[in-house]
What does this fold into?
Amino acid sequence: MKRVIDIFLRAVLTGFAIGIGGAVFLSCDSKYLGSFLFGTGLFVILSFGFNLFTGKVGYAVENKPSYIIDLIIIWLGNLVGTAAMGGMLLCTRIAGIGEKAAQICEVKFNDNLLSIFILAFFCGMLMFIAADGYKKISNPVGQMLAVFLPVMAFILSGYEHCIANMFYFTVARVWSLNTVIYLLVMTLGNAVGGIFIPFVRKAFIQPDTAKK
It folds into this structure.
């Protein structure tokens, strides 16, 4: 039980971190600066060992089937954290960010589910690259690039990140059954994209054992 609580609380804190990134993005007039500063959330998550669904799902390839339960707990914790963060901000003077979030959400809901899935797939790939890059790259500069560049790439490209969208949906006040359907498709796309690289790497790519 302590392990489950630990996983969940780290996921809730992740939701707050994503909320921090989402809030600063919505507050910036420049989408380039906003996309860069959004990376603050992922930097906090990876530096403090929090649990982000899109950063963890790729490792399902190398874990036991029971790892799926961990991912569900993480997803729920991320939802609680982002919703709590968003709800709190709606009680403050910066609640106006909800108007920009509503515009972003309108674009998403006017899109079809296949498009949403594909855009979420590519976001999932980028989030695995960020998480795995931060984990494996020893050079501090390389670590920072691994965190901030994939985040900027997915935001500027219009890719779909299910956890970030949880925050946007909250501050935009657009939760509904339709919202849940779109969120589940985004989650599935993020999951498939997240496991794509590690699956291909494990199943088909032979390790380079040649020594130079």
About this structure: The chain has a mean pLDDT of 95.
